[in-house]
Amino acid sequence: MARAPLLQLSDIALTFGGDPVFEDLSLVVQPGDRVALVGRNGSGKSTLMKVMAGLVLPDSGTRVASPGVQVGYMEQDPTMAGFATLGDYAASGLDVDEAYKVEMVAEGLKFDPAGDVNTASGGERRRAALAKLMAEAPELMLLDEPTNHLDIEAIAWLEQELKQTRAAFVLISHDRAFLRALTRATLWIDRGAVRRAEQGFDGFEEWRDKIWEEEDQQRHKLNRKIKAEARWAVEGISARRTRNQGRLRALQDLRAEKASQIKRQGTAAMAFDGGSTSGKKVVEATGLTKSFDGKQIVQGLDLTVQRGDRIAFVGPNGVGKTTLIKMLLGQVAPDAGTVKLGTNLDIAVFDQSRAALNADMTLWENLANDPELGVSGKSDQIMVRGTPKHVVGYLKEFLFNEAQARAPVKSLSGGEKARLLLARLMARESNLLVLDEPTNDLDIETLDLLQDILGDYDGTVLLVSHDRDFLDRVATTTIAMEGNGQAVVYAGGWTDYRAQRGGDFLESKEASKPLAKKDKTPEKKTNAGLSFTEKHRLEALPGVIDKLTAEISKLEELLADPELFTKHPLKFEKATDALIARQNALSDAEEEWLTLEEKAG
Questions:
Q1: Would you say the pTM of this structure is higher than 0.70?
Q2: pLDDT tens sequence across 567-601
Q3: For residues 9 and 62, is the Cβ–Cβ distance under 8 A?
Q4: Which overall architecture, per CATH, does domain 7-206 show?
Q5: DSSP string spanning 449-479?
Q6: What are the sequence ranges of the domains in the chain?
Q7: Do residues 361 and 369 lie in contact, with contact meaning Cβ atoms separated by under 8 Å?
C-alpha cells in the first residue's frame, strides 16, 4: 500500500509585494526522500524552505503535512530570547529524559552546550540550531546550509549521521561533496519554477545543461517562426486583409509568447587583477612557533611561499588557521622564529566574518565609502582596477539590480553578501589574495566561476576553506593543522592530502598526526626501524613522486610550444617557475624516499 506523502505544496504563489517569487508552484516530499534543493543565490531557496516549514504563508495555494508528521526546520538566525545557554535552547523541544541527545549531537558538531547565548558567535548559534533539529529527529528535516561554520571533521560527522537517518530531508548546501554523498533527488528553482529530477546532485549539472540546451533550441525555433510570419505580414497583408486576420492574431500570440519568456540570469562578471608582479618569493617563514591562551598554534614551522602558489590551510575550527595566516602576513608576531615578506606585495583579504560590510548601509554606500577603492562620501563612481566605473553599473556586473543598490546590506541573503564582498575585493589590484572561507553561502555556479578565475589569477592565494571539492579544484599545496602545534605541508588539495597521510579523516587521532619538522616529541618506532609517521610517509611518497612527474611532463609539454614566450610571456614565466619548483620538489621527494627506504632496510 502506497504511503501518504510527508508534505505537499499545491499551486503556491508568493510575491512579497513585488515581482513573483513563485507562481503555480507544486511539489511533494515522500517518506525516505533525500533531496537537494538548488538554485541561484536570490532564487528563493530559503524562502521556499520556510514555506515548506509553515513559517512563511503564501499569497495563495495550500501546504499540507500528513497527520502526525513533524516537520523540523534549521533556523539560520535562531531567536534564543529566554534561554540562558545554547544547550537550553537546543533541548527546548525535548522531554527531560531525552536531553542527553543534545550532548551527543553537540560533541559531533563541536560546540559547548553551556555556552552563553548572549556571547555566542553566529556560528555557535547556528550549530545549536542544527543540534536542536538533529536531537528532535523529526520525520522531515529541512536543512538550510547546515555545513556553514562547521569544520571538515564536523561535516564528516554530520554526513555520516544523515546517511544513517530514517527521516526524510531537504538540503540546501554549497558543498558539492556533501550533496553528492547524501542526495537521491534534486529540486531545482529556476526563474520562479521548481523542477524535480529523480537523481541526486551528482547528475544535476548535466540535467540542468540539457534543459537549457532544449530551451535555447525552442527559443531559436520561435524566433525563426516570428521572423517568417512578420515577413509575410509586411509583404502580403494588403492583399489578404480579410481572410488572414487569424494569422495576424497568431503572430501577435507568438510575440506575446516570446515576451513572456524569462531570460536566464547570466554569470557575474567576476575577475581578479594581478596588478604589479610580486617578488618570486612571497613569504619565507623559519622556525615559526606560536601559543595563544595556553594553546600551541604552531611549532617550528618552516615554509616558503612562492609567487603563484595556491596554499590551503585545513584543520578543525579553533586550531589557529587564521592566526597562522596573520603571522605569515606579519600581522601577528610569532613567539619564536622569523617571517620575511617578499617585495612589491599588494594584499587583498576576504574576511569570513564579512566585517568589511556595514549591514545598515546600502550596497551603493558600501562601495562608495571605501578608502581602499579611492572613494568616500556620496560618490557615484569607484575605481575598478584603475578604471572609474559607475557604482550601479559595477553592481550590475555582479548581478545586483538598481533597486538592490539602494537597499541595506542586511536585506541581502548570505550568498548575496558574499558576492558583494567579492565585488569590493575585485575592484582592487592585488598579487596576494587571502580568502578566509570564501565559499560560504555562494551558489554552485558562482563557485564554479570563482574557481575558474582563481585558476587564471597571476598572483598568490592563501585559502581557508572546509569545502572539500573547492579545495581539490583550487589548492596546489595543503597545510594540515591538527592541533598541538602540528602543521604539515602536503602537495595537492584535500583528496591528495588524505591519500598522502594514508588514513580516513575520522580515524583515531594517534594515527592521524604527522609531526612538523621541528617537533622534538619522540615517536613510537615500528619493527622496521621507522617511526609510525615515517612508515606512512614512505608509503605515500611513491604517489607524491608520480604526481610531480606527471605535472612536470605537462609543464614541459606546454613550454615546448615555440610561440608561448612571444605571445604569452607572463604564462611562459609562470610555467617556467612552476617547472623549476616541481623539479626541486621531485628531487627532494626522491631523496627522502631513498633515505627512508635505507632506514627501513
A1: no
A2: 777 677 777 877 887 788 888 888 888 888 877 76
A3: yes
A4: 3-Layer(aba) Sandwich (3.40)
A5: HHHHHHHH-SSEEEEE---HHHHHHH-SEEE
A6: 7-206, 215-260, 522-601
A7: yes
